[in-house]
Design a protein that fits this description.
heterodimer, A: 276 residues, mainly alpha, MetI-like fold, 0% strand, B: 436 residues, alpha/beta, D-Maltodextrin-Binding Protein, domain 2, 2 domains, 8-stranded mixed β-sheet, two-stranded antiparallel ribbon, 14% strand, cell membrane (chain A), MetI-like_sf (chain A), membrane (chain A), BP-dep_ABC_trans_perm (chain A)
């Protein structure tokens, strides 16, 4: 039943929501606007918001200096590849922990999460040596492996919490009807958990897309994703804000668009379905 | 796109990435303007050497440093040529991480390299890296503001003159500050400037036995002078200003003077970027009459990591990129003003270059005035003007820089900053085994 909300209250809530929205979105808007300024305008004080000579010079410069498409493809392969492989491993393990827990399940979960607590740089040299010895340095395969490993704990945790909300009785009913374990996971559990799996997928693609430590340190010329592309545009000597903004806009645009579209799917998925 | 198509695409892309390639040189480089220009001109090299392909890894200075250091320390072998600074060259050469450049070709003319730059790259008589461009520091000042205040900048000013002029020019109501200097903490930020300046005040990082010297009166004079000057005549919030912040302040007409890298000269005189392009004059970095000027010396250099499988091709490329013909190539394509400065004597003798670059003479004089093997008034056990070429310096320099930045911000006194710099440097140097 709809509540009676006074107009005044509606206005206040709307204003507050918009203010928060604009505050959160402002840095991205600012990056976008700066990417169309000249370097001199980008540092001008006081800065101008919309009234400057719009130029696409920075985008031309970025295009001529770097191979955007190569970095873009590397980012796509690495983020989607690692997330999909992660999901394939994580769905069975989250199932096991959610529906047939042992007394050690909580410890296992905590142990997995604990691997995220160590600062990455602490294992940089051992990892680098492992990659060197296995010939994985500067390969997409290597980056897919490392991103799968570092995001796996988060994927498992997220799926575990979603699976926990699914009543075990539904799975039990499937078993009573003679479904095997794999059929139970594929035909009964997965469809019910689609909203959860979808949001895990999206969040992990974003995390992998933005991962800037391992992707930078384990890649060189061939496998470098968009994070390395951005890193070539800031500079301690010389003006770079406009070019950096153009590079950043190009790097975040694909993931931003993906998020925008799948947001609708996600919301629909979350309000639909058997469980909720 | 359904999931299956997508998975297929992903798998095939992963498989493709493993394919092998022909003789390709992978070059790691910093993204400064001169390097970007070189990348655009490499067609000249590949057309002369069709059997060599070039692959670039261009990164921001600090990311690049971390990246190449990891690779060379683990013998990762990802790069055939690395762009490294004058700080790394002596340390890495002593570790045996770099190959000496013995075969740069008959027409390379090693003796044409500027002696000050060359000496920083030579260890035990062997050249371990070839300079691509070099820089020092100097005074950039606003001729119009000096005229208005009735002042004349000498070619070789003293710190007393600079301080006096800075206070006279300052007009805080009009947002004009007499002097802009680095204050942001970091071994390559405020400590580059302060270490070089301290040399002019007779201070040094270590005595001959590696004992830290921050408890000596010379350091107190230098830091006291700097903090007082910046409080009186510097811009607000100076403790967070580095090169770029000062560059934008100077370009927008808010600084009377700026002492920083000579490479800034081409930015502040560029009318496309700078509102004061036609009003800038140059002078040598100031001294205090003790025989040393507070100007630093830096070069970005190309080097070959030990264990490289493609030494002959790499040497060919280095010889091309740092040779005399490359300077001519840039001049033909982009004009003399855009030629990478600070590496070759012959460039400064070229009348066309002198005409195109008004800051040429001052740059050369500044580079020549620096002596990395003998940087301070008193003797020191280390190499380097604005740094100490030991592996521990990056961490130490930044830690000390934080104390000095705090002193500038007024969070602690000059005495406290020096005491804590002394304490932390003693601790680190003892731990590293330099002092007992």
């Amino acid at each position: 039943m709809a509540r009676n909300v006074s107009t005044q209250r509606k206005i206040v809530v709307t204003v507050v929501a918009w203010t928060i929205g604009i505050l959160i979105f402002f840095p991205i808007l600012w990056t976008f606007l700066t990417s169309f300024k000249t370097e001199a305008e980008a540092i001008a004080s006081p800065p101008s918001l919309f009234f400057f000579d719009w130029t696409t010079e920075n985008y031309h410069e970025v295009q001529s200096r770097s191979n955007y498409f190569l970095h873009f493809m590397n980012s796509v392969v690495v983020s989607f590849g690692s997330t999909l492989i992660g999901l394939i491993i994580a769905i069975p393990s989250a199932w096991a922990m959610a529906f047939s827990p042992t007394k050690r399940t909580k410890d296992v979960l905590m142990w997995m999460l604990s691997t995220k607590m160590m600062p990455s740089v602490g294992v940089l040299v051992p990892m680098y040596l492992l990659f060197r010895n296995t010939g994985l340095l500067d390969t997409r395969t290597g980056l897919v492996i490392v991103l799968t490993l570092i995001n796996l704990p988060i994927i498992i945790w997220m799926l575990y919490t979603y699976f926990k909300e699914i009543p075990g009785e539904i799975l039990e009913a499937a078993r009573m009807d003679g479904a095997s374990l794999s059929k139970e996971i594929i035909y009964v559990l997965t469809p019910m958990a689609i909203p959860g799996i979808a949001s895990t997928l999206l969040l992990n693609i974003i995390l992998a897309w933005n991962e800037a430590f391992w992707t930078l340190n384990l890649s060189a010329a061939k496998a470098a994703p968009l994070t390395a592309f951005i890193a070539s545009y800031s500079s301690p000597e010389g003006l770079f804000y406009a070019k950096l903004s153009a590079a950043s806009t190009m790097a975040i645009a694909p993931i931003l668009i993906l998020g925008w579209f799948s947001q609708k799917q996600l919301v629909r998925g979350l309000t639909f379905g058997a469980v909720k | 796109m359904n999931l299956r198509t997508f998975l297929l695409g992903t798998c095939s892309a992963v498989a493709l990435s493993g394919l092998a390639q022909a003789e390709t040189l992978t070059i790691a480089t910093v993204n400064n303007g001169d390097m970007i220009r070189m990348q655009k001109l490499t067609e000249d090299f590949t057309s002369k050497n069709p059997d060599i392909q070039l692959e670039w890894v261009t990164l921001e200075e600090n990311v690049l440093r971390q990246r190449v250091t990891t690779d060379i320390a683990t013998k990762g072998g990802q790069y055939d040529i690395m762009t490294i600074g004058t700080y790394e060259v002596p340390i890495w050469a002593k570790q045996g991480w770099l190959l000496p450049l013995d075969n740069l070709g008959a027409d390379y003319d090693v003796d044409d390299l500027l002696p000050a730059i060359r000496s920083g790259l030579t260890i035990d008589g062997k050249l371990y890296a070839a300079p691509f461009y070099g820089e020092s520091s100097m005074v950039m000042y606003r001729k119009d503001l000096f005229e208005k205040a009735g002042l004349t900048m000498p070619d070789a000013p003293t710190w007393d003159f600079i301080a006096d002029a800075a206070r006279k020019i300052t007009d805080k109501n009009a947002e004009i500050y007499g002097i802009c200097l680095r204050g942001k903490a970091g071994w390559g930020e405020n400590m580059a400037f302060l270490t070089a300046t301290a040399n002019a005040f007779g201070a040094r990082w270590f005595d001959e036995n590696w004992k830290p010297q921050f408890d000596q009166p010379e350091w107190k004079n230098a830091l006291d002078f700097y903090v007082k000057l910046m409080n009186d005549a510097g811009p607000p919030g100076a403790s967070s200003n580095g090169f770029n912040e000062n560059l934008s302040l100077f370009q927008t007409g808010k600084c009377g003077m700026w002492i920083d890298a000579t490479v800034a000269a081409s930015f502040v005189t560029n009318p496309k970027e700078s509102t004061v392009a036609d009003k800038v004059g140059f002078a040598l970095a100031p001294d205090t009459g003790l025989g040393k000027r507070g100007n630093w010396l830096w070069a970005w250099n190309l080097a070959i990591p030990a264990g490289s499988q493609k030494v002959a091709s790499a040497e060919k490329f280095i010889s091309w990129a740092t040779g005399k013909d490359y300077l001519k190539l840039v001049a033909d394509k982009e004009g003399w003003a855009n030629v990478p400065p600070g590496t070759r004597t012959s460039l400064y003798a070229n009348p066309e270059y002198q005409k195109a670059a008004p800051f040429a003479k001052m740059t050369l004089d500044s580079i020549n005035a620096a002596d990395p093997k003998n940087p301070a008034v008193k003797p020191v056990p280390y190499v380097g003007v604005q740094f100490v070429a030991i592996p521990e310096f990056q961490g130490l320099g930044t830690a000390v820089g934080q104390q000095f930045s705090a002193a500038l911000a007024g969070q602690m006194s000059v005495d406290d900053a020096l005491a804590s710099a002394q304490q932390l440097t003693e601790r680190e140097m003892t731990k590293a085994g330099y002092i007992k």
